[in-house]
Structure formats: C-alpha cells, structure tokens
Design goal:
The chain is an alpha/beta fold. Helices cover 44% and strands 15% of the residues. It has helices at 22-35, 78-89, 104-109, 123-127, 130-136, 150-157, 210-221, 234-261, 266-285, 290-297, 304-313, 316-333; strands at 14-18, 47-49, 53-55, 70-75, 97-101, 113-116, 139-143, 182-188, 198-204, 224-228.
C-alpha cells in the first residue's frame, strides 16, 4: 500500500474514490486486480454494450486515455481506514493506494478523476463544501449514488453552502448561467466489481468530452460489462443491475437450505448451485432465452417440471417482478433523504 505522503497534484494520473465503502472498495479492488493482469489476456472479460454487446478490447482510441496509475481512497472514520488498510496489506506487491480520512478536498485536489461513492443522503456534506467544489473544477466526476441524478449533483455545486434551502435535490436545475465545476457522469456498477464481473450502466452529461467518455467506459469495462442508457432508465437499471445480486443470493440460499435438508454439505452445494446459475447465465448471454432454457430442461413427465410447477404455485415469478418494481421505487427516493 502506498504511504501517506503529501498529495502534490494530479501527476501521475490519479483516481480518487470519495466514500470507499462496500461498493467503492469493490471497484477499487477490481481495478487493482485488473492492473495485475496482462492486457492481452483481458478482452474477453471486458465488454461494452451500446444497444448490443461488443468486446471492449484495447484499441488505438484507448491510447489517449489517461488511465489511472495511482488511487486515493477516502473514508470518514478511523475504523473504515483500518479496515481498508488491512485489506490492502494482503496485496502483493503493495498497490499504489493512499488512504485519506476526513479530508475530501485534499484528495479531490490530487485527482484527475473522482468517483463519488458516499451514501446518497450524504451528497451535500460530501461535495457541498466550498473547498471540495473548488477542487472539483475542471475534473471528471463519476457519481455511483443510487437515486441521485446529474442535475441533483449540479444543484449542490450551485448552492452557496450545504444549508442553503433554495435549491433542493431530485430534479433541481442549476442556474443556466452558472459555471459547472466538473463534468458529471452517472454510473451504477455492482459488488461483482470485486471479481471484475460487474454489470455497469452509465449516462453522461452534455459537457463530457469524448476522451472522458472513453475513460469512463474503459474504467468500468475493466471490471465487467458496460451499457449506455438514458437518464430516464436509471432507476429501473439501478434495481436490475445494482440490487439483483442480493436477489440471486437469496434464491441460492433457498437452494442451499433444500440441499442441506436432502443431506448435502452446504459448502459443496453452494459451489454446485453457483456454477449452475453461472452456466445458465452464460447460455442466455450466448443468445438463449429463459423460456427456451426452461423448455430444454423441463422435459415431458420429468422431475424438473414438477419443481417449476411448485414455484409457479407459490407465485415466484410475480414475487420477483413485484420485488424489482418496489426496489425501483425505493431507489428513486434515495437522493431525497437528507442526512440527519
């Protein structure tokens, strides 16, 4: 891990993560893991989806990307700093990461690119301070806050102080003639970033330069797949891509309970269930539909159809759909919750 030397500016290229919690740490470790592998071995792991899936391999267009070679992880508490330091100590060789506690403006000043990863309700306290806003001027800011739109972040930039009541979140529009201190990108990865298997959705503001677009796509393609979406699609995609790992984990837990009841070891059943889910996902990514997979497995008079019918009797399909709708509704309100 890099030592806590003074941060003297943005050379070499530096990525700062403001709020290096669960998701921020997953992104950090995914990027660190990607750095340790030969780029020539990576293309099959990184795909870019722009209404269709494409492989995002190294191209000549990538050559002008200012890829980060140093990382700054910002945390609020000593406990968080200690946790992160312990996790980084396990890496060999020591990664180029500096941990900064409670000094956001210093960390932002030293960065070329900033990932905003605090809690949505902490948006104002995290980037609303004058020193932080000043440090963000002219830089690329990638927000991964659920329920917080690009106009929400811009509104905070145009407040005189975090306590200014005249501008509110959720759709507030900054003054048309006001300066924008940063080009803002909105992204939603998931915790599979840690193993470079995230599904990330992104949308850009009009001021994002082509080189910044390529940098953002490269960053998230380094830890999984990337899909460009519109701002209006963000809340349902937050639920579909950001929240469903928990849904899948819950389904696997149910399978494991059943497997244990039938005499299997939980640890062995977990590997078998996860690999089976992975295989089904790969079939769908290869072009199969859920319906065709079900039809191929559930043969007439077989055992699979009996299990499918039992799940249908318990309204599993409807429950999953309702859960996604509820999750989307909840995601849309996260940005409106002020920190207490």
């Amino acid at each position: 891990m890099a030592s806590l030397d003074p941060l003297n500016g943005p050379s070499p290229s530096t990525l700062t993560i403001l709020g290096c919690g669960t998701l921020g740490s997953a992104i950090l470790f995914g990027l660190l893991g990607n750095r340790t592998q030969d780029a020539s071995a990576q293309p099959s792991k990184s795909s870019l989806n722009q209404n269709k899936t494409e492989t995002h391999a190294a191209t000549e267009d990538d050559q002008d990307i200012k890829k980060p070679t140093r990382f700054i992880a910002c945390v609020r508490t000593a406990e968080s700093a200690q946790r992160l330091r312990k996790e980084l100590d396990a890496w060999q060789p020591s990664p180029p990461v500096i941990i900064v506690q409670g000094n956001n403006s210093r960390a932002v000043q030293a960065a070329d690119t900033v990932i905003l990863g605090c809690q949505p309700q902490d948006l104002k306290s995290c980037v609303g301070e004058p020193a932080v806003k000043k440090a963000l001027k002219g830089k690329l800011l990638i927000s991964i806050l659920a329920g917080v739109t690009i106009p929400d972040v811009e509104a905070v930039f145009h407040q005189e102080s975090p306590s200014n009541p005249q501008l509110r979140l959720n759709g507030a529009t900054p003054p048309a003639d006001g300066p924008h201190p940063a080009a803002i990108v909105r992204a939603m990865p998931n915790t599979a970033s840690f193993v470079r298997s995230s599904t990330t959705v992104i949308t850009f503001c009009s001021r994002t330069t082509p080189s910044s677009v390529r940098l953002v796509e490269w960053l998230f393609a380094s830890i999984g797949s990337v899909t460009r979406i519109t701002a209006a699609q963000f809340d349902p995609c937050t639920a579909l891509c950001g929240s469903t790992p928990a849904f899948f984990a819950l389904f696997i837990e149910g399978l494991l309970d059943g497997a244990v009841a039938l005499g299997l070891k939980r640890s062995e059943a977990q590997v078998m269930a996860a690999e089976t889910m992975k295989g089904a996902a790969m079939l769908m990514l290869a072009g199969e539909t859920p319906e065709t997979i079900k039809e191929k497995v559930a043969t007439p008079g077989g055992s699979t159809i009996q299990g499918v019918l039992e799940m249908e009797r318990k309204a599993l399909r409807g429950s999953i759909a309702d859960a996604l709708v509820r999750c989307t509704a909840a995601a849309s309100t996260l940005g409106s919750k002020e920190s207490q």
